[in-house]
């Protein structure tokens, strides 16, 4: 009785070594006599040989010279399909074919999975790229808005400073014109003090060591005495916001006189 297949030892090999080593068909040409077909089987050496290897009484081949158990292949292979060894070999071949088919299908499945993974990763890369571009666009917009607000704020401040500087320049030019008018048309402006101007552009000024306040027309052609300070000399003067009063500081800087103006 043949032993159980499950109890037989198994030799495991790497599939990478399987390939051309698997015989497609049995070899039919004799290695010793290339022109002869192998049609006999030597049971002593467990090998197939040809007719030329076998004489009538004894094997003339160096490996079969004393072999008596040489049978024709037809006789030697009789009932081989019913043997346990043949059954095991056929089952092993079928199992190997099934395994190789499964392996081939697995590799094909791996290729398909690889393509799907590549497509998925490519899609994710595009999505990340789109998100990054959107974020960059939003950041750019925010920066432009911030820059515009800062520019507008600084522009307003600079314009205010320019306007203030222009006002100071206008005031200085007016004072310069007043001094020039006093110099060119006044009676004696070498000691003029407390210069101011009314709404009509007339210039008011005093002189050192004099209690009189003089008024000169805006064109500098007419000049006349307007007031006489009773106590001291005028040191400084200015009009009120509504130009209805003239305030005069005496030379000792201890008192201020207020005079009502009539236009």
TrEMBL record:
The record's listing under Gene3D superfamilies reads:
TolB, C-terminal domain (2.120.10.30)
Enumerate the UniProt keywords alphabetically: Coiled coil
Q: Which organism is it from?
A: Mytilus edulis
**Positions in coiled-coil regions:** 158-185
| InterPro entries attached to this UniProt entry | 6-blade_b-propeller_TolB-like
- What is this protein called in UniProt? B box-type domain-containing protein
